[in-house]
Structures are given as C-alpha cells and as structure tokens.
TrEMBL record, chains A, B:
Keywords: DNA-binding, Transcription, Transcription regulation
PROSITE patterns found in the cross-reference section: HTH_TETR_2
Protein name: TetR/AcrR family transcriptional regulator
InterPro entries, A to Z: Homeodomain-like_sf (IPR009057), HTH-type_TetR-like_transc_reg (IPR050109), HTH_TetR (IPR001647), Tet_transcr_reg_TetR-rel_C_sf (IPR036271), TetR_C (IPR011075)
Domain of life: Bacteria
Species the sequence originates in: Streptomyces enissocaesilis
Length: 213, 213
C-alpha cells in the first residue's frame, strides 16, 4: 500500500509517518463527506479541505474521487481484518471444519459491519452511485466486492472437497445464495437485518427449501 | 386506480379518456426523465413539460414526484400482468403443481424485465434513490417490492402445505433466497443476469448446498 500511496517520497521515517497520517485523514474525510452529502456532491476539494491537506496531495496519490473512496473502503476492510487478527492485513475466511458455523460467523460479522452507524451512510452512498454509474460500479465490484466474494468461494470449494457441499454446485452461485439476500435486506430495508436472519439464511441455503426424501 | 387518479372529475366517457391519456403520458415522462437525469434532478415541472400537461394537473393527482414515479412502476407491473393474461390487472403467481418449474418461470420473466432497456435505467435510478433516502425506500418497499414478494410467499406457503417445502422453513425468508441473489447480480452487475442463472438459483435453493445424506 505505501508503495502506491507515496511514490517518489523519500522514505525517511518522519515523512513516511506524515504521509500515513495524511492518507488516513483523507480516507476519513472522504467517507464522512460522501455519507453526508452523497457521492455526486463529494469533491476532491471538499475532501482536501476537511482532511486539512492541499488538493494536490490528493491528486498526487489518486486519479479521482472514486479511487479515493474505493481505497478508503479497502483500507477499512484491512483494518477490520487486522483487528480480527488476520495478521498481514489479508482477511482469511474461518475454516473450523464446520461449514455452517463458519458461514454464520462471517455473515453475522457482515451484518454488524453493514449496520455500523459510522460506515453505513458512506457505504450506501457508494453502492447507490455504482448502481447508476456502470464505470464506478465495475470498479466497486473489481476492487471491493469480488475479492470478498472470492473468500467465500474458497471456503465453499474446500467444503465441496470435504464432501460438505454437493458435487455439481457452482461455488460462485452458492455464495450469492448467502450474500445476495443479506445485501437485499440491507440495501432495500425490507425487514430487520439481524444475526438471527444470518443464521436462518445459512440453514435455509445449506439444507435447501425442498424436503429431504 | 381510476378512483384515486381522477378524484372529482366528472365521469363522462370523454373526460375519462382524456384523463387516462394524461395519466399515461405523465407516467411515461416520469420514467424517461428519471432514467436520463436521475431521481434527484427529476422535477414535477420537468415531468409536466415532457408530458405536455400543466404542473397543476400533476399536483391535483399526486402529492410528490416520488408518488408519481412509484405509481408509474405499479402501472407498468399491471400492464405486464394484463399482457400476461392476468385479467383484472392482478398478477397471479403460477401454480402448476411443479414448484421448481413455477419459480423458474417467474424468475426468468423477472430477469427479462430487469434487463429490458426501456425500464432498466429508471428502475435503477429509483432503487438507488431509495437506498440513500429511507422515506422513499420505505414507500418503494411498501408499494412495489413487498406486494410482489408476497406473491412468492403465497406460492411457497401452498408448496409447504403440499409437502414440497420443508416444515419449519419461513416462506418470507425463503423468497429472499431466490429474489435476493437476482437483485444483487442485477444491481451490482457482478456477472451476467441470464435465464440459466435464474434456473441455477432455483435448483440451488430448493436442493440446498449440503449433500443429502
């Protein structure tokens, strides 16, 4: 991350620390602004003013406000993974050998993230903007969504090898059976998004709706 | 519909026909404008100008642009149901006795509607606006989404009584297992939204991901 964020900056400890501080301030400013004003009305100038940096600092590191915002969310994910003990910043999907328990743990944690008052507004604003702007949507999927879906795919593939997922099931479709309903309930606010719902989804998806004859 | 759309208008055949023509023109204008300019930049004035009516005509029938748009989508749904032979405008969920076949037919038809170039842009614009505006989102759910989800619930409940859905499954959760992934793929454009995907979803959801032991 530091390599792309501070190209050409001399790597003395002080300047690295200053860069790191500016980078975090810019992320915080971008997230709070888009949460308050929406994506369309968030500007690089506004982010710079709130972060207390010059706008050239932002332009030096990122090509667009979309890039700043997407990286702010990637950074949030990395921080969450570090807090959860993921080590080098890479998030690992739990594999205790109990597929249902692992999926419930991850979906419950996802529920907690989605309803976190600090990040719900910017996350909704960015998602809504991507829904009507195909280029932004494609970046959102490529940088944020698909990498996280691939973690599920990896776990489901391991489960399939262990005989816990039926042969013939496409893990990439299976992951949508879990993540799709969660996202639908969150985005459209149809009914409360709770841990009990996360558990019910996992049970329904694994057990299937049809009776076992 | 006519009773709420033309309160106080004398019911001579001519004025009814004129009202009906204006109402349809207003819906068409609202859908095309929101598709082109987005929800935030669509105004009652703009809708009136494009529909060729005075803005007082719109204010007489609807309290807000949200109400116009939501009713435009309700009307679209009714037209689609009439075209599909639903008779009095009420859409009926197919019940051939074959749950998988009925679900696949409805999900395939939903795919066709979602990717219809005429309505995809306004539908995305309205959904995205509801994601960041809780009051609009609640109206969207109440008037458009939940009534259509309840049609699935009815079919799934009948299937449960017929022994084709496991006891203990909540039909309202089950419907999200089908509709959630479809909506996720459509809104976020992760992968192609096809009939084959609709079929795979139904098979995965009914059969379950876990092996039948």
């Amino acid at each position: 991350m530091a390599d792309t964020a501070t190209p050409g900056t001399p790597r003395t400890p002080d300047s690295t620390r200053r860069s790191e501080r500016s980078r975090r301030a810019i992320y915080e400013a971008a997230l709070s602004l888009v949460g308050e004003a929406g994506y369309a009305r968030t500007t690089i100038e506004g982010i710079a003013a709130r972060a207390g940096v010059g706008k050239q600092t932002i332009y030096r590191w990122w090509p667009s406000k979309a890039a700043v915002l997407l990286e702010a969310f990637v950074d949030l994910g990395e921080q969450a993974a570090e807090a959860a003990g993921g080590g080098d910043g890479g998030y690992e999907f739990p594999d205790t050998g109990d597929l249902a328990a692992d999926l419930k743990a991850v979906l419950r944690a996802t529920v907690d993230e989605l309803v976190d008052p600090k990040y719900e507004a910017p996350s909704r604003a960015l998602t809504a903007a991507g829904i009507v702007d195909p280029a932004l949507g494609a970046e959102f999927v490529e940088k944020l969504l698909e990498p996280s879906l691939q973690l599920y795919v990896g776990r489901l593939r391991a489960a399939q090898e262990a005989g816990d997922v039926r042969e013939g099931i496409d893990p990439r479709v299976a992951v949508e059976l879990l993540v799709g309903p969660l996202s639908h309930r969150w985005l459209l606010r149809t009914l409360p998004l709770t841990h009990a719902y996360a558990d019910a989804l996992v049970d329904c998806a694994l057990g299937g709706l049809a009776p076992r004859r």
